[in-house]
């Protein structure tokens, strides 16, 4: 697999009465591929991974890999409360044809660094594909320091990338410093994207291309080309939407936005609720 880079598009998971609506999932992924994203990442926060059972997880993986059909790298979220289920999911994704898996150390209890490291090592021992260490304490309940992330990349064979979602730019800069630039990091905080790309992020993990793909891709291209004035203008245009989808919950807002764009993405799974009408009105205005 070529190294992950650029705009990593995160599709929603559409539900049917009997599980997953694979036809809609395929259509959503096809829209992202056609838009020009650089990789597809099913089963992130936008994909409601936390609310799926194992049969549904497997269905999404199979459908996503089939939809991409080798055209782009596929990065599958496999996080779970237990190491055993995380390992099972990682193995399944690897066998299905995923190019990499993304792991956040989700936990009710605060985990020690020894426990976190052992968790990632178990996943690494189970697969022969890359692992993206995903730091998102707001959803996982575990905060991994730059020092720990760099140490794991040095000590655990398949931990080769980091997705940093705290919204703290200094953490990304510290990862670059500690690793001498050898550990690629990706921005997972939508409102931070411009600063992160300027700071050397290898890419942007985001659900925003489901709704406005062109400015997302143009923003990345402008930063890579060194056209920071154009990048700033694109960011200023995107920022209200980025702020809205984060504040309203990615699965909730992106599904509503797709519906407004004519894609029947359905509703999120309880306890998440559909976007209220006032929110839909604001989102409609942000989508132009």
Write the layout of secondary structure elements.
Elements: E1 6-9, E2 15-16, E3 19-20, H1 22-35, E4 39-40, H2 54-68, E5 75-77, H3 83-96, E6 100-103, H4 113-126, E7 130-135, H5 137-140, H6 146-155, E8 159-164, H7 169-178, E9 185-187, H8 193-198, E10 203-206, H9 213-225, H10 228-248, H11 250-260, H12 277-286
Parallel strand pairs: 1-4, 1-10, 5-6, 6-7, 7-8, 8-9, 9-10
Antiparallel strand pairs: 2-3
Explain this structure to me?
With 288 residues, the protein is an alpha/beta fold. The protein has twelve helices and ten strands. The strands form two sheets. An eight-stranded parallel sheet has the order 4-1-10-9-8-7-6-5. Strand 8, helix 7 and strand 9 form a beta-alpha-beta unit. Helix 1 packs across helix 2. The radius of gyration is 18 Å and the shape is globular.
How would you describe this structure in keywords?
single chain, 288 residues, alpha/beta, two-stranded antiparallel sheet, 12 helices, 49% helix, globular
Question: What gap, in angstroms, lies between the N and C termini?
Answer: 37 Å
Query: Count of DSSP helices?
Result: 12
Report the sheet-strand fraction: 5-15%
Largest sheet: 8 strands, parallel
- Rough shape? globular
How confident is the prediction overall: mean pLDDT? 97
Number of strands: 10
Please list the strands of the largest sheet in the order they lie side by side: 4-1-10-9-8-7-6-5
The SS-based structural class is alpha/beta
Element string (H = helix, E = strand): EEEHEHEHEHEHHEHEHEHHHH
**Radius of gyration, in angstroms, nearest whole number:** 18 Å
- What are the low-pLDDT stretches, counting only 5+ consecutive residues below 50? none
